[in-house]
Design a protein that fits this description.
- Residues 1-10, 104-115 have a biased composition (Polar residues).
- The protein is mainly α.
- Helix content is 44%, strand content 3%.
- The chain has a two-stranded antiparallel sheet. A two-stranded antiparallel sheet has the order 2-3.
- Helix 2 runs antiparallel to helix 6 (276-288) and helix 6 packs antiparallel against helix 7.
């Protein structure tokens, strides 16, 4: 009897517990359904209030990201093609040493050590090659953010030579309305001690003429200074010009180079007309162009002054005063010696960025001075005229137009017997003709 009573009590407890469990589960399901309904209602309200604005914002962000991706792919296209081209050149021919110098003095970037591994870069398409007689201009719109501020030259500098897989050619990016995102240099290793920044960037991996202690900007025990190092020490990095300085530079821009050739730099100094910019150009002229003919000296000073003015006033309006072939190539976003920017030939500028130490000996500059030719059929006296009313000299409009044509900047054939590889970058002097082939751009200004 006792056992039956105990069993019935236990059964009643189980039934009661089961009933409570069912009620608890039912309440939980109802709460979940209520919460889901509340969330769905909230989503509907948010979609009604903000859907259009959110979609517009997201689409704008997607468009910007897509544009940045396309710009980066274009830069990779250009660098990839130059790397493949140089790799092909390095396998078909030995790199040459500089003229009149010991081959052991130069480090050839085209030679790889056994421990180095060449990593090909795959691109979506190949860019076209330019001919040896025509150098294309680079036409790009300014990328955001503004790349024309002086910060463009304040890059992180590495004194290590560039890998041999980085190279150059005459490939020009396809004309496009998109700008290019500046290439950001790699950050230095945190464990590497800071080095003194040199004007020669990057340094040579072995001792070469521009790295020798006797190759500084001043004479050392009677040893002639290295011209390439000296010119980079003279030019240094650009400094921003004030509005007053810009006005003075523009006022004397044409008079100064003509007067320097006709009367000498000392006469300008005595007259108190020299500015910091023209003092730089005076030293550059005395270092690099004293053995050039007067026509070539005037052309070089005029075009270099235009570039210095742009670097000191880096605006779109100022850039428009430069010939388009003088605009920066994508490779010029890499850290490099500042003097490279002043060479007029785009392909040669790119070559120097990757292997400047093949051309840093004074013998190169001696050949450059004696072989540089501007295709100008008239005399030096026809390159300028004198304004009797103001007493100032002005450059002839015809000569100004001529030096803005890249095909007018040539080298005599003797130069290419010493540097045959540069025939891909620099037009050869074939004599004076009545007309010049037009560069592959309608607007040469």
């Amino acid at each position: 009897m006792y056992n039956e009573t105990q069993n019935s009590t236990a059964e009643a407890r189980r039934l009661k517990k089961r009933e409570l469990d069912r009620k608890a589960q039912k309440l939980a399901r109802e709460r979940a359904k209520s919460r889901i309904a509340q969330l769905e209602s909230m989503v509907d309200i948010l979609q009604q209030d903000h859907s259009n604005a959110q979609i517009t914002t997201l689409m704008d962000q997607l468009g910007k990201v897509t544009k940045e991706r396309d710009n980066l792919l274009q830069v990779l296209d250009s660098l990839g093609s130059t790397i493949r081209r140089h790799f092909g050149d390095s396998t078909t021919g030995e790199p040459r040493s500089d003229t009149k110098s010991d081959p052991s003095q130069h480090a050839s970037p085209a030679q790889s050590t056994p421990s180095e591994r060449i990593v090909p870069i795959t691109t979506r398409r190949s860019t076209s090659e330019t001919s040896s007689s025509t150098i294309l201009e680079l036409s790009i719109n300014p990328p955001p953010p503004d790349p024309f501020t002086c910060d463009g030259w304040n890059y992180t500098v590495s004194n290590e030579p560039y890998p041999t897989t980085m190279a150059f050619n005459n490939s020009i990016l396809p004309p496009t309305g998109n700008g290019f995102i500046p290439t950001q240099p790699l950050l230095p290793d945190n464990h590497t001690p800071p080095e003194v920044v040199d004007v020669i960037i990057p340094k040579a991996s072995v001792l070469c003429p521009c790295s020798s202690p006797t190759s500084r900007g001043a004479n050392f025990h009677g040893v002639k200074p290295n011209i390439w190092r000296a010119i980079n020490e003279v030019l240094v990095k650009p400094t921003k010009l004030s509005a007053k300085e810009i006005a003075i530079e523009e006022y004397n821009a044409e008079d100064m180079p003509v007067r320097a050739i006709l009367e000498g730099w000392d006469s300008i100094e005595r007259a108190g007309k020299m500015t910091p910019t023209w003092r730089k150009l005076r030293k550059a002229d005395e270092l690099c162009f004293t053995n050039c003919a007067d026509t070539e000296r005037l052309a070089a000073m005029r075009i270099c002054h235009l570039l210095i003015m742009y670097h000191g006033d880096p605006t779109l309006e100022r850039r428009a005063t430069l010939p388009r072939w003088y605009w920066n190539r994508p490779s010029q976003a890499l850290p490099h010696s500042y003097g490279i920017d002043f060479f007029v030939w785009p392909g040669f500028r790119e070559r120097l960025i990757f292997c400047q130490h093949q051309y840093c000996a004074n013998s190169f500059w001696e050949l450059l001075q004696t072989n540089l030719k501007i295709l100008w059929s008239d005399s030096f006296q026809d390159t300028f005229y004198h304004n009797a009313h103001t007493g100032k000299y002005h450059i002839s409009p015809l000569f100004e137009q001529r030096i803005r044509n890249i095909n007018a900047w040539t080298m005599s054939t003797d130069f290419f017997t010493h540097f045959p590889e540069l025939s891909e970058d620099i037009p050869a002097y074939m004599g004076i003709s009545t007309s010049l082939p037009s560069p592959p751009y309608q607007n040469q200004l």
